[in-house]
Amino acid sequence: MRVKENLERIREEIRISSIKSGSGPGDVTLVGITKTFPSELVNEAVRCGLTDVGENRIQEAEKKFPQTPNARKHMVGHLQSNKVSKAIKIFDMIQSVDSPKIAGKISERSLDSGKRMPVLIQVLTDEGKQSGTRPKDIGPFLREVSSLKGIHIQGLMTIGPYFEEPEDSRPVFRQMKQLFDSLKDKIPGAEMRYLSMGMSEDFGIAIEEGANMIRVGRALFGRR
Ligand SMILES: *Cc1c(COP(=O)(O)O)cnc(C)c1O
Questions:
Q1: Alpha-carbon dihedral sign for residues 106, 26, 30, 181
Q2: Does the CA dihedral 195-201-204-209 come out positive or negative?
Q3: pLDDT tens string 28-46
């Protein structure tokens, strides 16, 4: 099993990148993205100290996550309306809120089950294939959904565009951080605590530019 070594290497990179960014390494939450990886590997990582795990599909999370009780669970993929009730049962945070409609639905269903779901708003930084809200529309989006009682907005998430050269992601991350900072304390009900960006190839660069939540799959669990 390589997971232990991988986790140590990732932690070291988090430490170094945090120093460059001027924040402490304790400020960065590592979310292990477990899609396609078996529960044995996931639990190995949790035994080595991984606290947070994420999936992008409800079906896979539904099967897998009950076997990993001791971790916080994050939804990081597009959520369909008819899966919201399930998502609320499975996850501790939904990072992929990509429309006012889905925000409303999550709020409604959370209230039904006596919860207030922590969420991040997904920002579109790769026009090609993702869902999410364009950076310029995030302010109005937040104002629209911030009064919903069943969600607790805790920040922003983005899946940056893919580049051969990870360094090319830096300007995108920098713009995200500026957007994040510009929204701080601006919209009542929308807390800007987490900025979730950076994956296996570029999480170090994301941290240097201000990410405090990173989502890492392959670098932790191996090839998919
Ligand atoms: C798969 C996935 C990741 C992790 O990707 P890796 O390249 O395996 O690190 C992060 N975020 C989202 C939304 C994903 O779907």
A1: positive
A2: negative
A3: 999 999 999 999 999 999 9
Helix boundaries (H) for the chain = 3-21, 39-47, 58-64, 84-90, 100-112, 138-145, 170-183, 203-208, 218-221
What pTM, to 2 d.p., does this model score? 0.97
Q: Tell me the CA–centroid distance for residue 54 and ligand 1, in Å.
A: 9
| CA angle (42 as vertex; 161, 159 as ends), nearest 5 | 10
SS3 of residue 199 by DSSP: coil
Average pLDDT in the chain: 96
- Please choose, from the candidates 125, 133, 136, 135, the residue with its C-alpha nearest in 3D space to the C-alpha of residue 199: 125
Confidence grade of residue 1 (pLDDT, cut at 50, 70, 90): low
**Ligand 1 midpoint to CA 39 (Å):** 17
DSSP 25: G
Per-residue pLDDT for 124 more than 90?
A: yes
Q: Is the four-CA dihedral 29, 30, 36, 40 of positive or negative sign?
A: negative
Q: What is the DSSP letter of 149?
A: T
Query: Which residue matches tokens 């995200």?
Result: 176
So what's the pLDDT on residue 151? 98
Nearest-atom index, ligand 1, CA of 216: 9
Residue 218 Cβ inside 6 Å of ligand 1? The answer reads yes
